[in-house]
Each structure stands twice: as structure tokens, then as C-alpha cells.
Specification:
Largest interface: A-B, 8 and 7 residues
Oligomer: heterodimer
CATH class of the largest domain in chain A: Alpha Beta
CATH topology of the largest domain in chain A: Peroxisomal Thiolase, Chain A, domain 1
Distance between the termini of chain A: 19 Å
Structural class of chain B: mainly alpha
Number of strands of chain A: 14
Helix content of chain B: 55-70%
Number of domains of chain A: 2
Radius of gyration of chain A: 20 Å
Strand order of the largest sheet of chain A: 5-4-6-7-1-8-14-13-9-10
Strand content of chain B: under 5%
Number of helices of chain A: 16
Strand content of chain A: 15-25%
CATH architecture of chain B: Orthogonal Bundle
CATH topology of chain B: Non-ribosomal Peptide Synthetase Peptidyl Carrier Protein, Chain A
Distance between the termini of chain B: 17 Å
Largest sheet of chain B: none
Chain lengths: 424, 87
């Protein structure tokens, strides 16, 4: 018999909040975390604004030993460890220095690339014929699995510890991989999440592809405009989101607070066939992914209260909505509420899915729908597809029962998770 | 720099890599980095880099392989310092 899987802990390191209370307040109030970035301006980026978590040295030093801090130059690991450890503590779980690992707990913590600043430093040293000066800190910070390795060492995890990587679908995928592991009885608790580095070396490639906006350098907070008629590309972001997934049995046995349930989900790819390419989604695959997620969760489309979209603020937003509409097949004028967190925090790349899932779980557990910001001028294409009332621009306080979250990534890959409010 | 001074400087260098406060307090020639100070072997290369910086010397791969305890490390530092003074 499959285990039911619930969420018992949340942690976040987002551009608009680095603790759960701060983040929850920010998303309810539509507070933007997008700022002007002097380093991007100095390096002649077209897009000189970005979303970056704000952390003091004092805060960081609560999570790392002085020795670890000495040569630490991987923002993704910093964000991931903070979000991950916070989620663990939020779940009421202890961080102990016990001799034996916790064999029933593991982690799937994704990233796109790890420690890009550290990697740059190492490459420069090697080219300057100073390879012996690298020391021991380069590999552990630049291996893709650095973040899950740091987290598992701090928590003493003895189950599967791995890093998944699937571009912008990474975060949603990490939750589904962790869910499957608990559902099938191979683990009791899994810390799921994802992280993404900050800075010019991670964002540069996107800037060069001209997928980021260059029109809002003078007004950072207005720059990220999902579903707007004046959306002109995404604003890059960074950070991490983390969720403790746990079998319902385990959560009940230890009387843990239950934020919500993972009902099911689906992961697939468009194979870069049909309209799908390395960078564009195959609509058939997106629709199949959403439909398969509903089937996996055992729910009807009409039961969805809220969709947390991928919606990055590029011209593809309307196509995404068209795909949701085609997949859900609801009567005209019936469409769930839909929102995009990217208006407030930008597109946090590999971390986007997990941060957005943390926001989604907060909406379910606290009973609200966060406002879409920067789409006061809704795209006419989108208006032609769904009712305007489905796109709230102010906070709605109301209980919600089922939320669908999807993330789509380069490589023509998709992930869709279905969350449900937990009622005993 | 005499042997005692070198050991004192070494103590400051290895301190961040070890959590064995008692062994650190009683560091002497017979102290072993891995067995007594429980230093992670991966960090030995970092200690060598710190030693190079502190004493302004360069340590070759062969010497590095021997630097597993205070005695051998002190001798290597002494010989490198002498070699430098003789130049």
C-alpha cells in the first residue's frame, strides 16, 4: 500500500524574504525583491536588475562553521543550506551530532550549476599556473551535488542524498522525486528543494540570449511583468526553497504540523519534437503533463482552485495559459485563479520551482491567493483566453483546497505537482 | 625561528581544522594531525597552504606527503627555512 505524503516543514531564501514569516508577508503584500545590480551594470549587461536574497554575514555564520566559511564562495550552497536547515527545524526535527545517520531520511536538492564564482576563481588559478593553491574547497563547492552533500552532512541523512538537474523544472521535479521515494516506502522523510547561484556568471548566458528584459533598468520593481501586455523578458533571480516531505503515518505519529499533502504529479518531456525545441515547449507535452498530473492525483480539473504558473514574463506566457486551458477543458468562463510569483522575485532559474512551491503551500495552509503584480496592463492575448477575474491583482483571503503547480524548462521538459490542503 | 616558535605558529594554523580542544591545548612534537587532532585528511592540503603563507616557503609534493604529524612538519619547515636563509 502506497504511503500518503505530506509537507511538514518549509524553508526559503528568496529575493523578497529569507525566513518563512518574512516571505509569507512579502508575497501577500506583493513586495518585490528585484533590485538594480551595480555589478551587472558595470559588466555591460542588457538587463541590470535581478532578484537576490539579502543575507547578513551574521545570519550565514549560524549555518556554517568558521572553517567552512573560510573559502566559501558558492551562493547556491549558502541559499540551499539555509533554506534546507530552516525547513528541517520548521518541521520540528532536531539537528543533532549523533553517531549514526538517520537511515530513513534523505534529500533530493537540485541545482543547475554549483558554485560558479568558486569555479571561476579555480579556473583563473589554474590558468595562472597556481593549481596547487586550489586547496580542498573547490571540488565540494563546484560539484553539482555540493548543496545536497552540505545539507546531508549537517543533518546526518542516511537515505538517498542526491541533486537533480532539469533546468527551470528542477525545483518541482525535486519534490516529485522525493514524493515518489516516500510513497513507495523507501524513505520516511525527504528534504526536497532546489537552489540557484547569484551573479553575472550564472545570469550572463541568459542576458546574451536576449531572454531577459532590458527595458526596466531604471525601475527594477516594475521589471518582472508576467502576463502583462508590456512583458519584455524575464528578470533573473536566485535563491532556494526547501520542503520537508514525510509519510502521513510518520507525521501523525510525531504529531507534526501538516502544511499540506502532495497528491500526485507528473514529469515528462516534449522530446524537442513538433513545436518543441531546446528552448521552446512542445504544447502537446505540456498538456499531457498537466493531464497526467491530475490523473496521478486522482482529481478532476474542476477541483483545482489555484494554478501557480511557470509564467516567466516572456511572450510564452500566453502559450502557457493556452496549454492550461486545453489541458483542463473547463467550461468557458470557468478557469481557476492563476498567479505567478515571478512578478515579485524574478525567475530564480533552478530555484524557481521550489521557491514557488513554498509560496503555494503557504497559500494552501494559510488560505490566501497572493496577488499578481505588474500586470495591471494584462496581455490581450491572455484576456482572450481566460476571464480577467482569474488573474487576481490584489490579495484574496479565502480557503483553497487544491493547487496545481507547474514548471517548464529548457530541454523541453515539464513538471506538474498537485498539492491539497490537509484536513484530518 | 626555533622549534618552540614553529610549534606555536603551527598550533594557530591547525586550530580552525580541529575540534579536539584538549589535544590542541597540549600540542607537542608527538601530536598526529589525523589520529590526535582528528583533522579531516582532505584538509591537510589546506594546512600546507597556510604553512606556506605563514613561513613564506614552498613545500614540494614529497615533503607534503610526510607532513602528517607535528614532528615531521616542524622538521620540514626548519629545513625549508634554513635552505631559504642559505640562499
Amino acid at each position: 500500500m502506497d504511503n500518503r505524503v505530506v509537507i511538514t516543514g518549509l524553508g526559503v531564501c528568496a529575493p523578497n524574504g529569507t525566513t518563512i514569516p518574512e516571505f509569507s508577508d512579502a508575497i501577500k503584500n506583493g513586495i518585490s525583491g528585484i533590485r538594480h545590480q551595480p555589478d551587472l551594470e558595470a559588466l555591460n549587461f542588457s538587463c541590470q536588475i535581478a532578484g537576490k536574497p539579502e543575507l547578513s554575514d551574521e545570519r550565514i555564520s549560524q549555518y556554517f562553521t568558521p572553517l567552512e566559511l573560510r573559502n566559501l564562495n558558492s551562493t547556491g550552497i549558502v541559499y540551499g543550506v539555509i533554506a534546507g536547515l530552516d525547513a528541517w527545524k520548521d518541521a520540528g526535527l532536531a539537528i543533532e551530532n549523533n553517531d549514526e545517520p538517520d537511515w530513513d531520511s534523505g534529500s533530493i536538492f537540485g541545482t543547475g550549476t554549483s558554485g560558479i564564482d568558486k569555479f571561476r576563481w579555480a579556473i583563473n588559478k589554474i590558468d595562472e599556473l597556481e593549481i596547487r593553491k586550489l586547496g580542498s574547497s573547490v571540488v565540494i563547492q563546484t560539484m553539482a551535488s555540493g548543496v545536497s552533500a552540505f545539507i546531508s552532512g549537517k543533518l546526518g541523512l542516511g537515505n538517498q542524498v542526491s541533486t537533480n538537474s532539469s533546468a527551470c523544472a528542477t525545483g518541482a521535479e525535486s519534490i516529485l522525486l522525493a514524493y515518489e521515494r516516500i510513497k513507495s516506502g523507501q524513505a520516511t522523510k525527504m528534504l526536497a528543494g532546489s537552489t540557484s547561484d547569484s551573479g553575472p556568471y550564472i545570469w550572463g548566458g541568459f542576458d546574451a540570449m536576449k531572454v531577459c528584459t532590458f527595458k526596466h533598468n531604471h525601475e527594477p520593481e516594475k521589471g518582472s511583468r508576467p502576463m502583462s501586455a508590456t512583458a519584455s523578458g524575464f528578470v533573473p533571480g536566485s535563491g532556494a526553497g526547501a520542503l520537508v516531505l514525510e509519510s502521513l503515518e510518520s507525521a501523525l505519529a510525531r504529531k507534526a504540523r501538516i502544511y499540506g499533502e502532495v497528491l500526485g504529479g507528473h514529469i515528462n518531456s516534449g522530446g524537442q519534437r513538433g513545436l518543441g525545441t531546446m528552448t521552446a515547449p512542445n504544447p502537446d507535452a505540456v498538456q499531457r503533463c498537466i493531464k497526467a498530473a491530475l490523473q496521478s492525483a486522482g482529481i478532476q480539473a474542476a477541483e483545482i482552485d489555484v494554478i501557480n504558473g511557470h509564467l516567466t514574463a516572456t511572450t510564452k506566457d500566453a502559450l502557457e495559459i493556452e496549454n492550461w486551458k486545453a489541458a483542463l477543458q473547463l467550461p468557458p468562463d470557468h478557469f481557476p485563479y492563476i498567479n505567478s510569483l515571478k512578478g515579485m522575485i524574478g525567475h530564480c532559474i533552478a530555484a524557481s520551482g521550489s521557491i514557488e512551491c513554498v509560496a503555494s503551500i503557504l497559500e494552501l495552509s494559510e488560505g490566501f491567493i497572493f496577488p499578481n503584480i505588474n500586470c495591471e496592463d494584462l496581455s490581450s492575448e491572455i484576456k482572450a483566453l481566460i476571464p480577467e477575474k482569474s488573474i487576481p491583482q490584489t490579495l484574496i483571503q479565502q480557503p483553497i483546497n487544491i493547487l496545481a503547480k507547474a514548471s517548464f524548462g529548457f530541454g523541453d521538459i515539464n513538471a506538474c505537482v498537485i498539492f491539497k490542503k490537509y484536513t484530518s | 625561528m626555533n622549534k618552540e616558535q614553529i610549534i606555536e605558529a603551527l598550533k594557530t594554523i591547525v586550530q580552525p581544522y580541529s575540534e579536539e580542544t584538549s589535544a590542541l591545548a597540549h600540542i607537542d612534537e608527538n601530536t598526529d594531525f589525523i589520529n590526535d587532532l582528528k583533522i579531516n585528511s582532505a584538509n591537510l592540503v589546506d594546512i600546507i597552504l597556510d604553512i606556506e603563507e605563514k613561513f613564506n616557503i614552498e613545500i614540494d609534493n614529497d615533503s607534503m606527503a610526510k607532513m602528517l604529524n607535528v614532528k615531521a612538519t616542524t622538521e620540514i619547515i626548519e629545513s625549508k627555512l634554513e635552505a631559504r636563509a642559505g640562499q
